[in-house]
Amino acid sequence: MASSLDIKRRIRSINSTKKITRAMEMVSAAKMRRAVSSVLGVRPYAHNAWHILTNLARAFETYQENRYLVVRDVKRVLIVVVSSDRGLCGSFNTQIEKKIRDMVAHPNKLTVRRVGRKHVESTVHEDAVAIDFITVGKKGELMVRKLKKEIIAAFPNGAQFSVLGDIKPLSSIVMEEYAAQRYDKVVVAYTDYVSAVTQQTRIRQILPISKIDIEEQIAEIDMLAKEYGIEETKMEYKVEPSPAELMEFLIPRLIAMQLFHAILESQASEHAARMVAMRNATDAAAEMSEDLTLRYNQIRQGKITQEIAEISAGSAALGN
Q1: 186: buried, middle or exposed (CB in 10 Å: 19+, 13-18, 0-12)?
Q2: Phi and psi for 191 in degrees, rounded to 5?
Q3: What are the beta bridge partners of residue 85?
Q4: What is the pLDDT of residues 95-126, one digit of tens each?
Q5: What angle do CA 262, 172, 149 make, to 5 degrees?
Q6: What domains can you pick out in the chain, each with its CATH number?
């Protein structure tokens, strides 16, 4: 049985830990607010992009000669994994790893091609499908290395992607690899921020571009799209110098924005997950401290009672 001194030492240690977890919770809450603010700040752009791209979606089917719109049989897949740089964020990274392992174990889920609003099954057998990775965040790199898969590029500091311009090195690699036909499909694995207590792991197709994926991603980011009254309306556009040149200019920016959205969502989800994890740790530490304090008081009370009994017995013996 632990002595009162040992229990007192444990109480001090737990209370010290509780202070640390409480501080980490507050820091994560502040970072989460900034990250969520960044996501909300993109909404005006997302509104206009959704509106314009929906009306120009017919061009995706008309100008199939564009190098980013070419649809091929899926033999090689590139997965961009967005994770955190640090741990102590609950199941945030575990859910990403679970999703990646599922994709690696069942490549047939990645070989389905989306053309416009259609799903086209690949003719390539899943055993012949090769999967490589680009990692954003240290934890993602560790996940992929455990799977012994090829990493063609690693960005260990995920926090560096704070503005749209920072995404250029990542988006350039993705576009160059697809345009060079080294990969037939590019997807991004990230965590979608729903609320402070709810995050969802998603796999989103980046290339080849499909109308349904554009609409789904922007709709998921803008949870209040219906309240803003955004509707799909038909509009006529005059394009100069030509539709083909417009698509060549527009598509790289669209790809960069999709990747930037995914990273912003993951950053907000990471801070939310860490805030909740630290809050749970703080509550658990408080409960442990209360239980140990109760045990300490019981032992102390037992010693006092024993001492009183001994004094009473000694006094009675002297009286006799």
Answers
A1: buried
A2: -110, 125
A3: none
A4: 999 999 988 888 877 776 665 555 666 667 77
A5: 70
A6: 24-277 (3.40.1380.10)
